[in-house]
Amino acid sequence: MKVNIVLSINDNSVELSPGTIVSLEREPENPKDPNAVKAVMDGQFVGYVANSPETVLEGCSAATVVAKRLNRPEVAGINARLLSSYERPTKNEGITQVCWIAELYFIPVWDSGKDAATAATILDIGGNSTLHRETGTVVNHLPSYNDGGLVLKLEQVATEGRLAAYVYRSEQLLNPSPASAGEVQNPPDALMAALQTTATIPVTPVEVTGKRTYKVSVNLDTSHLEKFNTEMDQVVRNCVMQVRDIKERVSYLLSQSVPGPLIRAVLQSMRPLDDSAQVEKPKQLYFQTGGDTALTRAIGYYLAGKNLRLVGEKGTGKNTLISSVCWAFYQPFCRVQGNADMDKLDLMGSTTLDEKGTSFELSAFIKAIQTGYDAVLDEVNAVKPEVALILHSLADDAKSVEVPGYGLVKAHPRAHIWATMNEEYVGTSDLNDATADRFVPLYLDQQANIKGLLKERFPEIDESVLTICGTVYGKILDAVKSGRCSSGAITTRGYIDAVEASKYLPIKQTLLDNIAGRPSDRDERETIRNFINAACPA
């Protein structure tokens, strides 16, 4: 939500610039406008939020709207971050008024009574009827559970290496080996986070949607987020991001079992971005399964200011981990693909010629580090050693590099350097010890099962498609371990492409094209085709 603030003509003592934060306050005693909202900085009056049709810009809200928001009991205050200034003429000839466009950040009341979410969330329940044997019982007698008797419980799906939310009849939980009544499809991060802190959560039946599917509602209490209220409040007051975006990140980190002290530190590290920077949520977030703690360790080293080198075969989630960490920290990043043809100019920049003459243009990689963004060099072990040397001074205590033709470039304190590598790629070599020593290595293993990742990426995916993909993946993984297939046969992107296309084409065909069709070796392709043919019904 944006407003435009009209500054006082008579007061030029307040210095404002893009990024300046002001607080908005009601001024109901104002004789000209009872809905007047003033902007204040450090207790000093700055101006008024525009409210008349002549002064409110298109795309901005009027002061009357802001005043109503300030009157709401759940709103503790509103801060505004100034974006850009402009001038408007006044009635006095030759005199203009300075105005600012500002983005609003609503500060909530964080106490437990008002911050706890009470709105019902509707959940879709389904899954394999063989695995969830009690589904039929619940579907056939759904109205009988209106007064209770159905609960959610977090379970580790051993065969898929992921956490899932299962529905149980309460009485079933008294059994040593209880049978579940379905799985939550596409569980929200807030739900998974809540289940990390409590044994069960009651749900209320809504309606039957199929022979083995139904809907339930749950009132998600966000009290598990309360321990982070102080830090979340500061993020909003600093105009970094809106409450919903903060809670989304905290819920995600909690759902991945990231310890509370690390989450607090992440929140404390957040800073506003300039208007040109963007941090988009990744299509696929990294999720820790089984004993995997790569996300937690990456966050810990990141907070310690370390540069990270992610090592793993194709499909182990190196890029997903980077984008997830940067999203959690609200940190933009730039990615550069390394290769044997890369030279120093590619990594540092070069001289350019335009109508004004010659000038030096820094590379996107160096610009990112200078600006305070993260920089990622993919396949660092494919880069010639003399080019990789550029990283040394940037990644050690000097945190700077001398760019010929430009001068000294200092790394911004917030900038981190990431490197990724696959030790088995053709055209790669052992990384120089001096280069490797400047990065903390994190080794990522191949996923034991693809089903969990696909379920996370495609929550609406049919169970039969999941089963087929999981079977084929398992067969190929066994073949790689026994030496019958190369590691290149494991392709996470291939399964993602196959599932996306299965909306329009048979899954057998999309797997043949995207999984069996990718290896260069003919015998390997034939081996994988046999796996797919065996897994897919005729």
What does this structure look like?
- The protein has 538 residues and is α+β, with helices and mostly antiparallel strands.
- It has 4 domains: 2-109, 2-Layer Sandwich (Alpha-Beta Plaits), CATH 3.30.70; 110-271; 273-443, Rossmann fold; 451-535.
- The protein contains 19 helices and 22 strands.
- The strands form 6 sheets. A 6-stranded antiparallel barrel has the order 1-4-3-2-5-6. A 5-stranded parallel beta sheet has the order 15-18-21-14-22.
- α17 packs antiparallel against α18 (507-516).
- It is flat.
Low-confidence stretches: none
Tell me the major beta sheet: 6 strands, antiparallel, barrel
Q: At the first level of CATH, what is the class of the largest domain? A: Alpha Beta
CATH topological fold name of the largest domain: Rossmann fold
Portion in beta strands: 15-25%
User: Could you estimate the helical fraction of the residues in percent?
Assistant: 25-40%
Distance between the termini: 55 Å
Count up the domains. Answer: 4
What overall geometry do the principal axes of the alpha carbons give? flat
Judged by helices, strands and strand pairing, the structural class is alpha+beta
